[in-house]
């Protein structure tokens, strides 16, 4: 073998070892896999083509004349998941803490460009101490280039980030721009400034996990969409998520042959939805009843639980579900629920995934805190998202649709394509009890007024003003459907909308209230 070939073999060996055996042991001891082990766990076996394996910075190549590491702390390449191409990068914490220097950043930016040009999803496996301190402005510039590419890719290819270790400083903003962020419990954290800096500046004492662990970001901040108990589970979830998504904005979503009968009746809906408007129930059970084989991937499950969003299939076609959750805060719309649903609808619209909206909500959440924190601005996002979306939109009013929430939740007025209601549902400016108290105030205040009279007026209001027949008569509903035919009517509606084309006026972009 020539000397050059020997050198190449040696370089490759060093590349495969990342930061070396003892740092790999440290990584394992922390309950973390190495970057290469993670790639293997994510992709279809044997499909990885590494690109830029030898691309390295001068720093890592010359430690006292010795090669320290090859690859600059990030592995980039192309692979297949469920037989479909993806581009990916995996940061290697064993090399300078996975920190982003000029070369590391260039490698990521290049793979992002390739993903955009070749129209395939981009997956980032993040494990990084942030900007590489010793490279100064060059590492900041590298981050800037990555952020720019994230924005260029947005709405063109699906972008997925998996946080598998610390993700500090600049490292958090690239994931924040991507479509879906995953975190692993106990071994991953995201924060702009760490506990030490916080202590110095605001004198608050906090540990890494409480500051930016998976629990905080999935339940409180809403930064992260999926939390997993292990790296293996997170990567499995990524594969499941990808199964619903098209390769890019010009490709159709992946349709499969469903073994769930499209004409399956759903009489169970009658028992799942309580007859009285105020009784809670779990909307997730309704979703699982309606979709193929009960398989539903909830997105942001722990955040703003009063609205449920996620992916499923109907007769093999991917759909996005947006549904009020009567089991949590009665399914009201508030600031966080509006943000959560609006961003999801925009994702579905970017990638031709029809949205099915299931409505059962008493309206927007009243309260000084909500008003002062801007429910007006946040609620407006949902209006914007539904009205600008040109994908097929199918809405079913299950029980109640009161006030602004009736309009906002995929109504005909915001360009819902097919709108249904169940026979016992109520559509009104407000709930019958509240309406009667306002409309019949003077009568109800009279001394001889009794509870029976109130009940009588409420029943009258429900019949005369809240019946779905009124909306259907006006053409605001396409049909009033029986509970048992809900699944098959949604599927029929999807079939008749499958070639939908909608032109919107030419403009650079709208100005959604952010
Ligand atoms: C260079 C870094 C580094 C960094 C870690 N390392 N972060 N090297 N630049 N940003 C190196 C360490 O020196 C160490 O090298 C190895 O990685 C492992 O780090 P440890 O500290 O030993 O690991 P651990 O105890 O697990 O702690 C991980 C950590 C901590 C929490 C990430 O390293 C840390 O706090 N790092 C700094 C995080 C940070 O503040 N980054 C923000 C940068 S500013 P050796 O050789 O000893 O193994 C920024 C601004 C960009 O990102 C703004 C853009 C909008």
Helices and strands in order:
Blueprint: H1 3-17, H2 21-29, H3 35-42, E1 49-50, H4 58-61, E2 74-81, E3 84-91, H5 102-118, E4 122-128, H6 137-153, E5 159-168, H7 173-177, E6 180-184, E7 189-191, H8 195-202, H9 208-212, H10 214-219, E8 226-228, H11 231-242, H12 269-272, H13 283-290, E9 297-299, E10 307-314, E11 317-324, H14 335-350, E12 355-361, H15 368-372, H16 375-388, E13 393-402, H17 403-408, E14 418-421, E15 426-428, H18 432-439, H19 441-445, H20 451-465, H21 468-473, E16 479-480, H22 486-496
Parallel strand pairs: 3-4, 4-5, 5-6, 5-7, 6-8, 11-12, 12-13, 13-14, 13-15, 14-16
Antiparallel strand pairs: 1-2, 2-3, 9-10, 10-11
Helix pairs in contact: 5-6, 14-16, 18-20
Hexanoyl-coenzyme A binds at residues 96-97, 99, 129-133, 140, 143, 166, 168-170, 173, 194.
CATH topology of the largest domain: 2-enoyl-CoA Hydratase, Chain A, domain 1
Q: Report helical residue fraction.
A: 25-40%
Strand percentage lies at 15-25%
Average the pLDDT over all residues and give the rounded result.
94
Cα separation of the termini = 62 Å
**How many β strands by DSSP?**
16
Tally of domains: 3
Per CATH, the architecture of the largest domain is: Alpha-Beta Complex
Most strands sheet:
8 strands, mixed
The total of helices stands at 22
CATH class of the largest domain: Alpha Beta
Structural class: alpha/beta
Bound molecules: hexanoyl-coenzyme A
Parts with pLDDT < 50 across at least 5 consecutive residues? none
Q: Any idea what the radius of gyration is?
A: 26 Å
Gross geometry: elongated
For this structure, what is the CATH homologous superfamily of the largest domain? 2-enoyl-CoA Hydratase, Chain A, domain 1
């Amino acid at each position: 073998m020539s000397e050059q070939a020997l050198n190449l073999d040696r370089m490759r060996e060093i590349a495969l070892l990342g930061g070396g055996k003892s740092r790999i042991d440290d990584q394992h001891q922390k309950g973390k896999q190495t970057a290469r082990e993670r790639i293997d766990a994510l992709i279809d076996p044997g499909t990885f083509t590494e690109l830029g394996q030898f691309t390295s910075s001068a720093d890592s190549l010359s430690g006292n004349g010795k090669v320290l590491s090859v690859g600059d702390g990030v592995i980039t390449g192309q692979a297949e998941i469920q037989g479909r191409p993806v581009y990916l990068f995996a940061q290697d914490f064993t090399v300078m803490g996975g920190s982003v220097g000029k070369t590391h950043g260039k490698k990521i930016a290049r793979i992002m460009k390739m993903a955009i040009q070749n129209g395939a999803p981009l997956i980032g496996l993040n494990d990084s101490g942030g900007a590489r301190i010793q490279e100064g402005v060059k590492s900041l510039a590298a981050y800037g280039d990555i952020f720019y590419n994230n924005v260029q890719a947005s709405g063109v290819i699906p972008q997925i980030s998996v946080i598998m270790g610390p993700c500090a400083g600049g490292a958090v903003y690239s994931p924040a721009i991507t479509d879906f962020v995953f975190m692993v419990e106990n071994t991953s954290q995201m924060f702009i400034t760490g506990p030490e800096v916080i202590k110095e500046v605001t004198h608050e004492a906090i540990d890494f996990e409480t500051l930016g662990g998976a629990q905080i970001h999935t339940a409180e901040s809403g930064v992260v969409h999926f939390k997993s108990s292990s790296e293996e589970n997170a990567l499995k979830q990524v594969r499941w998520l990808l199964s619903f998504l098209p390769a890019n904005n010009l490709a159709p979503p992946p349709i499969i042959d469903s073994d769930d009968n499209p004409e399956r009746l759903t009489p169970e809906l009658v028992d799942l939805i309580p007859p009285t408007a105020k009784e809670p129930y779990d909307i997730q059970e309704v979703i699982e009843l309606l979709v193929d084989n009960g398989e539903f991937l909830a997105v942001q499950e722990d955040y703003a639980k009063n609205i449920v969003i996620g992916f499923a299939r109907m007769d093999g076609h991917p759909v996005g579900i947006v549904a009020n959750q009567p089991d949590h805060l009665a399914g009201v719309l508030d600031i966080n629920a509006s943000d959560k649903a609006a961003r999801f609808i925009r994702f579905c619209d970017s990638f031709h995934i029809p949205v099915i909206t299931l409505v059962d909500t008493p309206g927007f959440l009243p309260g000084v805190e909500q008003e002062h924190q801007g429910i007006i601005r946040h609620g407006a996002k949902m209006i914007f998202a539904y009205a600008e979306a040109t994908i097929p939109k199918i809405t079913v009013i299950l029980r109640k649709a009161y006030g602004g929430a009736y309009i906002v939740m995929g109504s005909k007025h915001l360009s819902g394509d097919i709108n249904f209601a169940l026979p016992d549902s109520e559509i009104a400016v407000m709930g019958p009890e509240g309406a009667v108290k306002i409309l019949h105030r003077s009568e109800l205040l009279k001394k001889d007024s009794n509870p029976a009279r109130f009940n009588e007026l409420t029943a009258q209001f429900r019949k005369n003003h809240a019946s779905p027949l009124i909306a259907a008569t006006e053409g605001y509903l396409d049909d009033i459907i029986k509970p048992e035919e809900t699944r098959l009517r949604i599927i029929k509606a999807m079939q008749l909308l499958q070639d939908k084309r909608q032109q919107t006026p030419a403009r650079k972009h709208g100005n959604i209230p952010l």
